[in-house]
Amino acid sequence: MSALIEFQGFNKYFGEAQVLKGIDLRVQSGEVVVILGPSGCGKSTLLRCLNGLEVAHSGSLRFAGNELLDKKTDWRQVRQDIGMVFQSYHLFPHMSVLDNILLGPLKVQKRDPREAREQAEKLLERVGLADKRDAFPRQLSGGQQQRIAIVRSLCMNPQVMLFDEVTAALDPEMVKEVLEVIQSLARDGMTLLIVTHEMAFARAVADRVVFMEAGRILEHNTPEAFFTNPQTARAQQFLEKFSFVSTLPKKPKELELI
User: Fold this and answer.
1) Which partner for 99 in 36, 64, 95, 199 could form a disulfide, CB atoms 3.0-4.6 Å apart?
2) Beta bridge partners of 241
């Protein structure tokens, strides 16, 4: 079975620094792949290359059978098929929620306004924000703005969604509402590539976990296998840091505040 997305010997440089090193990765249609690793390991750069926001330097990157590193690639069309949501929301502050969502479908895809509006309103209802259609971004919480950013991308009818640390800038109580939207997309069978530091979420939503270090993929496995029996010492060390708080000893009673 041919993969929907396929990196082969993929390399990326920033100046003389190589940030992606011989990446080989295949993603099937409907698969949810979570990419983990320490900061600076290349996770976000990998997603940005897939969306055409960073230029690759060598190797192969295929999407739906087409080589994206070909000079003739229409990245404007590719970005309609591969949606991406970032840590920052990138909503236009002077536009209402509905106008933010409809900008791409109407201006880029030239779709029928009535059909696009109906889809936008259905998606707003799905994420629990139907009553915010006429609000402006400044009137929304961070979690609400991030859900609007997801709806805006979904309204372009992409085949794939990329999520790059979408909860990193949110207050803890807002994280759950955003992750629930992503989980619903996974249940619907959408192809997702997710960069996150939310370990419990990664374990729950992923079909496969990819672990990166210093621009390379060190291992990939099912979430159950990765979280219970990582195959490399570096992955084990990474996971131990996230379990540190849960394994702290309780404060002795004599030290507790009265």
Assistant:
1) 95
2) none
